[in-house]
Specification:
This protein has two domains: 3-13 and 26-154, Immunoglobulin-like, CATH 2.60.40; 161-278, Immunoglobulin-like, CATH 2.60.40. The protein is mostly beta strands. 11% of the residues lie in helices and 50% in strands.
Amino acid sequence: MTGRNLISAVLAVATLLAAAATADAFNMAISPMRFEFPLDARPVTRSLKVINQGSEPIGIRVKVGHWDLDEQNRLREIAPTEQSLDQWIIVRPLKLTIPPGKSRTLRFAVRPYTRPKPGEHRAMIFLEQTGAYQKNAQGIAMRFRFGVAVYAHVGQTIRKGDVKAVVAESRGFGVDIKSVGTANVRMNGKFGIWPANKFPGEKSARQALAAVSGKEKKIARPRGAAIAGLLPSTPVLPGYRRQINVPLAEELKPGKYRLVLAGKLGTSKLARSHLFQVPQ
């Protein structure tokens, strides 16, 4: 991927990260935001809590759909199949109104109509606002639409991924991952970027990252590092290969740098470093 294309991809991811925070903008809280469970021929039941933290009642319509992620890791709704999880989910209620300061519970059951094939089956429970539009800080009228991902695993669950390449430039970096297991794979860990002349070595860098504390998407900066942060948990679906792009909170100055990734990829250790140059 060229530097220009990487910049575009990083900006797209930044937009997605901002969109993920829209629940707060709409004074909503949803818990949990993701479900994962084993599935066989027996029914599975789960519940989802939606909290209205605003000062006005909120109307919600519930839909269920089939999905995957496109080349830019954006949610893409696709046509259902006999083996797609959305065909087996029953949600109640499908419409609800939540008074201000109150919560409501959605319950859903998974009842396969056919014998599920081994592997990962996916669905998305969409919560769509009904009624009047709400204005954001810029005065734009909006309605929310949140998606709660549901993953059901049939047979052995193997979360395995291969890092094929790492690319980086002044505004962000990308990690090319191929998911080779039976279930989605995600990065779970931290990254740090050091000026090459201050790099303490890979072992020391990983130890430094492990030692620093983190909250939400930010972590303390290890000694000598130009920047550090948490790796995104964007899923790579089984059988897919995707580049996960990570925008930096600040642009790097010209010079030579060493990027270190530390943590896990699925159930495997993630320990990767990449030397790169930011041109003048």
